[in-house]
Write a structure and sequence with these properties.
The structure is a homodimer of 351-residue chains.
Chain A (H helix, E strand, L loop, with lengths): L14 E7 L2 H11 L6 H12 L3 H10 L4 H10 L3 E6 L10 H21 L4 E3 L8 H13 L6 E3 L14 H10 L3 E3 L10 H5 L8 H15 L2 H4 L5 E3 L1 H4 L1 H18 L13 H7 L1 E4 L6 H11 L4 E2 L10 H8 L5 H15 L3
Parallel strand pairs in A: 1-2, 2-3, 4-5, 5-6, 6-7, 7-8
Chain lengths: 351, 351
């Protein structure tokens, strides 16, 4: 493998669009929640692993999550990453029952992230955290984070205490993102207690499979419920090659239309754009976080669109330099590779 | 669209490998179970729809499910289908708490299906039903159905009262399929009560999305639990383009290996073939039931193997003639199209 360098000598900058960090306040709240006997089982599985496991990988991940300075930038340099688009790591504050505390932690995370972005304006760009448990306050925080702190997206780590963004109680959040013209990145979370049973039993609740189930379903709900008809300009971002929705696209269209025709579900009405795939192609951006695999990248570019597939690394959870090299080596015209690694991100995040 | 004809004039026969039927005994048992106040919520959603809904599509589907003669063959002729590989439709007897009754219904279904296959040996091939609720009896029925009735596969409609085939209680079933050298087709079912919550709430529990979640997870459990190391010759079939597992393959490998290294889960031990993808390429066949979509067919052929992707229609649930024409029209060498439509099925089902 040739050395990976920043600076764009290969013909494009590498902008990694789904990179994670944490804050001391969040870790503190997580530790308290881990002691709650009624804590969400997926939360206990996921955060319990990274906070308490003594294995080399979880310890390294947990350490790097909490760095927004030198260690992170050294890792970026080593892997040839010019810029990270940063979001508060899963499940962030989504698991906290106290909406006030959740809001405060999200707001402090935005302040911390904004400070890091100011210190390293050529290396970091921020996505705003928020606590939809208090939707009006979350909407105000999105406005503040975008207009005052320079954030260029909103990140929401899937379900909020078992509820999804198609629930009208969260409308203010979607309205704010649409009004501020920033995408919402729906990042994975473990499934809520009402869904995690057989996944957790088999050890499949996390990134190996359950994350995709949870997050693909969340995104699909925004389409089939008509939520994106209520917020037609809203753009949704999904990592992990679109959480498999591009691969399901034909079946989603066929069965959605059959379901709408039959009136089987009260919650599934005709959509303005008719087909699920029209939303995937017009309201979604997809990143390859965790999937440094040429066949899947090309498949998504082919069926969703070359301008809607972006590079991501998933640092610090998954960041082998070999994966950067594999994406560099894709058999793809340089101009398309530049859109993938650089210019799509520059457009979406207004860099 | 040119007329679709049987007989192979296009250079191959069309063998549809995931086609459904039902029996009067099964429908009777379903109707009783629908009256059970504790019935599985996914079962009520799925079977309740097809049995009671007065819409055109569910009525037509329910009628055709119960025909193993003239109407079915006329539909096949009209769509250019030379042969159907038939399985007892979902959720079959998997939802019945009385193991004895479930076994009897499965055995009677096999007798009925065998009779239809004898009456139309050039048009129908059978997959054996069984009721894993009584695993030893199910194993004996698989032996009988293969050796005496000429069945060429076993069909199991995913979870059995909330349990999965990696549970050692079902070992006799897997052992019988391996010993009789027939694949097990894991057909979708709705997710069990412990998983269906947010899917059902959003109307996504069925074929549009939940089926894939349930069935992909079931198949993955057989790999990650080490079950396929206990039955290394066993072949598993999946419809719907592999329930998205081919698209997830890179992430499955990466996160499975990370999980095994960390020892995070007691149930996730190192595997003999090391990578999840090795099992997908050596122990799985994939059909395109419900997904008449060239990009997904080619993707799976590319990453799983040309000899492991088979044609299916999903009759009577999804059977527009246009879908047959779309598959005929794929931009693919005739020899590969023949493997897809005909010779892979001939080899797998020993036709």
């Amino acid at each position: 493998m040739t050395e990976l360098k920043t600076g764009g000598a290969q013909g494009y900058l590498r902008i990694a669009t789904e990179e994670a960090f944490s804050t001391p306040e969040l870790v503190e709240a997580w530790k308290e929640e881990l002691d709650n006997p009624d804590a969400d089982p997926g939360f206990k599985s996921l955060v319990g692993f990274y906070i308490t496991h003594q294995g080399e990988r979880p310890k390294w991940v947990f350490d790097r999550l909490q760095d927004l300075g030198e260690k992170r930038i050294a890792d970026m340099d080593e892997r040839g990453i010019d810029r990270q688009i940063l979001g508060l790591t899963s499940p962030a504050t989504n698991v906290l029952r106290n909406a006030d505390r959740a809001s405060i932690i999200a707001e402090m995370a935005n302040d911390r992230l904004a400070e890091a972005c100011r210190a390293h304006p050529d290396r970091f760009t921020g996505m705003a955290a928020c606590a939809p448990q208090d939707a009006d306050r979350a909407a105000k925080e999105i406005e503040r984070a975008v207009s005052k702190l320079g954030m260029r997206a909103v990140i929401i780590n899937s379900h909020i205490l078992g509820e999804y963004l198609d629930n009208p109680k969260f409308s203010a959040v979607l309205e704010a993102a649409e009004a501020m013209d920033v995408p919402i990145y729906i990042h994975p979370n473990t499934s809520p207690a009402s869904m995690i049973g057989p996944l957790l039993e088999a050890g499949l609740d996390g990134a190996i499979f359950g994350f995709g189930v949870e997050t693909g379903m969340h995104a699909l709900r925004l389409i089939t419920s008509g939520t994106l008809d209520r917020f037609p300009k809203l753009q949704i971002m999904l990592g992990h090659m679109g959480e498999a929705l591009p691969y399901w696209m034909y079946r989603l269209d066929f069965m959605h239309q059959a379901g709408v025709r039959s009136g089987r579900y009260e919650v599934m009405k005709p959509l303005r754009k008719e087909k699920v795939s029209n939303y995937l192609r017009e309201n979604f951006y997809i990143t390859n976080s965790g999937v440094a695999w040429e066949p899947a990248v090309k498949f998504a570019q082919n069926v969703i669109g070359m301008d809607r597939v972006l590079y991501a690394m998933d640092y610090p959870y998954q960041c082998p330099a070999e994966e950067v090299a594999a994406m560099d080596a894709m058999d793809m015209p340089l101009e398309d590779k530049k859109r993938f690694f650089q210019t799509n991100a520059e457009r979406v995040f207004k860099l």
